[in-house]
Write a structure and sequence with these properties.
The chain is an alpha/beta fold and 290 residues long. The chain is built from 14 helices and eight strands. The structure holds zinc ion. The site of zinc ion has 4 residues, from strand 1.
């Protein structure tokens, strides 16, 4: 029985897969895999044993990093583990027409959405030069994940290695995009600290926006986030870990301690994501007393 869908899980593809996670760790990201392996085979085993599905993706930041990813590898992992993985693609928006073509190729390969990381990719998501890419995304009905809040990438290094946090603000960036592309379903990744209240405002105002609760230990979720996912935005929030930065076990054990209604928990863990992604769950699981 499917128990949960993890909306935010990283894999490495292309040249990044060959390098492994060492450069990622060097860039400041923690690796908290517990007893699990961080390669996609090991991750599939983990999610199967936990009776979960996972949305997997890599991030294409080639213009900044010079390192190539390969969306066809993400598609191949989904093909290998179709009961476990749902794949999202990633394009570097700076690639212009090539990025637009790659969005189309991702959809053709069966990837179900697109993932952006404005800090790592160094782009202003509201710049008009990227609109042809969004138009293609809308045409193909692909949902998108945008990073929000601070980032662990290069955290603590001098100048944050040149990364600016500005473009990760829900207001104005995600709010504007959601207004300009009302057909684009946007997931704001993470509880968006220190702009969590802005994120909640966007969620409450823009019907086409959602959030995942990944990359942040639930015991440190801001109080207003906990209050809103328990009430007004209970249909718009998804479980997510950011594996291999955090294990599902840790996330779940801390989530269990949050003061949430019993009727809300299955929505966040499974039902909201199932509905969002069009994954069928037996009606016995959808029965809710809210
Ligand atoms: Zn992430």
């Amino acid at each position: 029985m499917l128990k949960a869908i993890d909306m935010h899980v990283h894999i490495l593809t292309g040249e990044r897969a060959k390098q492994g996670w060492a450069p990622t760790v060097k860039a400041g990201l923690p690796m908290n895999t517990g007893k699990w392996s961080s390669d996609p085979d090991g991750m599939a085993e983990m999610y199967q044993s936990l009776e979960m599905m996972a949305v997997i993706f890599d991030v294409d930041g080639e213009t900044r990093s010079g390192i190539k990813i390969d969306n066809s590898e993400t598609a191949a992992w989904v093909k290998k583990y179709p009961q476990t993985f749902i794949g999202f693609g990633s394009v570097d928006p700076w690639k212009g027409k090539i990025a637009v073509e790659e969005v189309k190729r991702c959809a053709d390969m069966g990837l179900r959405g697109m993932k952006f990381q404005q800090a790592a990719q160094g782009f202003d998501p509201t710049n008009e030069r990227f609109f042809p890419m969004y138009e293609e995304i809308v045409r193909l009905k692909l949902p998108v994940i945008f990073h929000t809040g601070t980032t662990a990438v290069a955290a603590g290094s001098p100048g944050g290695k040149g990364i600016v946090l500005e473009y990760c603000k829900p207001i104005p960036y995600i709010d504007n995009l959601a207004a300009w592309f009302p057909e684009m379903r946007i997931i704001m990744a993470h509880p968006s600290w220190p702009w969590h209240d802005d994120q909640l405002a966007v969620l409450r105002h823009k019907g086409n926006t959602y959030m995942d609760l990944s990359g942040w230990a639930p015991k440190y979720f801001p109080q207003s986030t906990v209050h809103n996912i328990n009430t007004l935005v209970q249909d718009k929030a998804f479980f997510g870990t950011d594996f291999p930065m955090m294990t599902p076990e840790r996330w779940l054990s801390e989530f269990a301690e949050l003061p949430l209604k019993d009727s809300v928990r299955p929505k966040i863990l499974l039902l909201n994501a199932a509905k969002f992604l069009g994954i069928e769950v037996p009606s016995t699981q959808t029965a809710s007393n809210s």
